[in-house]
């Protein structure tokens, strides 16, 4: 049962004031809501009774704030596996545009009129019409997520769009303008200047961006398997965000095939050839470094690392690597190898050379070295 009554009181300064209060009971508890006029109170009571019948009513005292609902919305977006860049954009909308103006407002207190005022406040604070529209859409997404969780009964953003959608679209169309060459996009002469100045490893990227019109995420994910130089085609199959996380295009239209013009084809061929030569040089350098590393680990032999001194030259000796300890050799995996073994503090000062076929041979040699130590040192 809900009733609308008038309330009158006198402030501490002696000013008489009046208001209209809606008293109602929800799930065994008494609740009230105050309005400045009887008309607003009566309209709200009708909406409240409809929500109670549907089981979606949430009293204002138990309703969460917009900031709390936004935090739950971001958490749900992360759990749904949305891209990091998308979640970051949602977080910026919430922290920089929604929370400063509506963060402390409870969801049950939002009305279509408050959404209109919120959009106007965004424009007054310097937000562009495009940004104000995006932020309002994010607010609607927060309310939709709250409705799915049973925390609010109405999405006032969508109600406001249905009531004032035609006027809003007309205003947005008035502010829209076509792209201008030389202002929003470069002219032909500017493109020629860019191509002339593009040199080095960035030239293939710049030429590809100019003649294909790919998005930044599609350029980041482009690989050689997506380029068919024989047919002169470029296939867009995936994209990569700013955090280098790869994924499929957002829509089916995003996966497409683009013809490659001659200038781009020649640039890609040159880049492919240069990349192949770079790989060959890198492999050659790796093999050379690996060979030098292996030679540095071999034991010194007579004449190794030494060259005859000529006139005015001194002999150059290559420093020998320290021999491994016995405890290290025992625990090494069995394999066929040739190395120098010196007993830890052993009697054989020059060490010994043996061929190891298995772990048993290593243990046998260790035992013999220990026996020689005991026989020598007592």
Task: Spell out the key features of this protein.
378 residues, alpha+beta, DNA polymerase, domain 1, hpI Integrase, Chain A, 4 domains, 3-stranded antiparallel sheet, 12 helices, flat
Radius of gyration: 39 Å
Mean pLDDT: 78
Largest sheet report: 3 strands, antiparallel
Name the CATH architecture of the largest domain.
Answer: Orthogonal Bundle
CATH class categorisation of the largest domain: Mainly Alpha
* Order of helix and strand elements from N to C terminus: EEEHHHHHHHHHEEEEEHHEEH
What would you say this structure looks like, in words?
It is a single chain. This protein has 378 residues and is of the alpha+beta class. The protein has 4 domains: 2-54, no CATH class; 66-175, DNA polymerase, domain 1 (Orthogonal Bundle); 188-271, Intergrase catalytic core (hpI Integrase, Chain A, Orthogonal Bundle); 326-377, no CATH class. It is 50% helix and 13% strand. It contains 12 helices and 10 strands. It has helices at 38-54, 66-79, 84-102, 112-124, 129-148, 156-175, 188-197, 203-212, 216-220, 262-297, 326-330, 359-377; strands spanning 2-10, 16-26, 29-35, 227-228, 233-236, 239-240, 246-247, 256-259, 337-341, 352-356. The protein has a 3-stranded antiparallel sheet with strand order 1-2-3, covered by helices on one side. Strands 4-5-8 form a 3-stranded antiparallel sheet, with no helix packed on it. It has a two-stranded antiparallel sheet with strand order 6-7. A hairpin with a 5-residue loop joins strand 1 (2-10) and strand 2 (16-26). Helix 4 runs antiparallel to helix 5. The protein starts with a strand and ends with a helix. Residues 303-358 have low confidence and may be disordered.
């Amino acid at each position: 049962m809900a009733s609308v009554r008038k309330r009158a009181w006198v402030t501490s300064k002696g000013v008489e004031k009046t208001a209209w209060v809606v008293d109602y009971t929800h799930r065994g508890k008494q609740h009230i809501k105050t309005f400045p006029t009887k008309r607003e109170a009566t309209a709200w009571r009708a909406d409240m009774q409809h929500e109670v019948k549907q089981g979606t009513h949430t009293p204002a005292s138990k309703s969460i704030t917009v900031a709390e609902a936004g935090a739950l919305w971001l958490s749900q977006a992360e759990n749904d596996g949305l891209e990091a860049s998308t979640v970051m954009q949602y977080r910026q909308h919430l922290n920089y545009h929604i929370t400063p103006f509506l963060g402390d407002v409870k969801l049950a207190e939002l009305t279509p009129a408050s959404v209109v005022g919120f959009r106007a406040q965004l424009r007054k604070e310097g937000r562009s019409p495009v940004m104000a529209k995006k932020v309002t859409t994010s607010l609607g997404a927060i309310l939709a997520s709250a409705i799915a969780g049973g925390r609010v009964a109405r999405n006032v953003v969508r109600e406001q769009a249905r009531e004032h959608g035609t006027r809003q679209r007309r205003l947005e169309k008035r502010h829209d303008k076509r792209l201008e060459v030389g202002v929003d996009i470069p002219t032909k002469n500017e493109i020629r200047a860019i191509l002339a100045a593009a040199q080095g490893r960035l030239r293939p990227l710049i030429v590809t961006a100019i003649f294909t019109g790919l998005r930044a995420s599609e350029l980041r994910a482009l690989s050689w398997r997506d380029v068919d130089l024989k047919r002169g085609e470029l296939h867009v199959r995936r994209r990569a965000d700013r955090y280098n996380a790869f994924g499929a295009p957002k829509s089916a239209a995003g996966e497409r095939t683009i013809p490659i013009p001659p200038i781009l084809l020649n640039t890609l061929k040159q880049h492919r050839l240069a990349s192949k030569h770079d790989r060959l040089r890198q492999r050659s350098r790796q093999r050379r470094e690996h060979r030098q590393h292996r030679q540095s680990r071999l034991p010194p032999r007579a004449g190794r690392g030494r060259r005859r001194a000529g006139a005015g030259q001194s002999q150059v000796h290559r420093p020998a690597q320290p021999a491994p300890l016995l405890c290290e050799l025992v625990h090494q995996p069995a394999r066929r190898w040739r190395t120098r073994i010196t007993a830890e503090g052993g009697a054989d000062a020059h060490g010994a050379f043996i061929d190891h076929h298995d772990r048993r041979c290593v243990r046998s040699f260790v035992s013999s070295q220990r026996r020689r130590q005991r026989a020598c040192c007592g």
